[in-house]
Each structure stands twice: as structure tokens, then as C-alpha cells.
Ribonuclease K (Otus sunia), 71 residues
Amino acid sequence: LLGIFFNVHSAVLIEDVPFTEDDFKDGPERIYGLYEQVSYNCFIAAGLYALLGGFSLCQGRLNKRKEYMVR
């Protein structure tokens, strides 16, 4: 969800955008670019979490098989 909110340039999230004073001199386009950069980073992190969660789920199911259980 954060990726979506950064992509629509939510003003509430301005504290999480890495900007400098010089970024405000050129107009809002540079700030919008920074918002989109942070948005892409959020989408990449969400994708990695989904991949690792799927891998963890597969490993958990493999470990629950009867042939791997210790008697």
C-alpha cells in the first residue's frame, strides 16, 4: 500500500522522501521523481517479501511431510 500512496504523491509521506533544499528550487517535478523512486523501492520490497513468504510456505509444507518426520 505504501508504494501506491507514494506513487500518488501523498503529502503525508513527505517525511519519508529523501530530499534536499535544492530539490525545491526546480519546481515539483523533482520532488515527484523522488516520490516515484521511493514508490518503486516499496514495490520491490513487497515483491521480495512475497517471494520469501512463498518460499517459506513451501519449506514449511515440505518439512511437515510424513517421510521427513522423526518417529
Summary: Residues 7 and 36 are 5 Å apart (CA to CA). The mean pLDDT is 83.
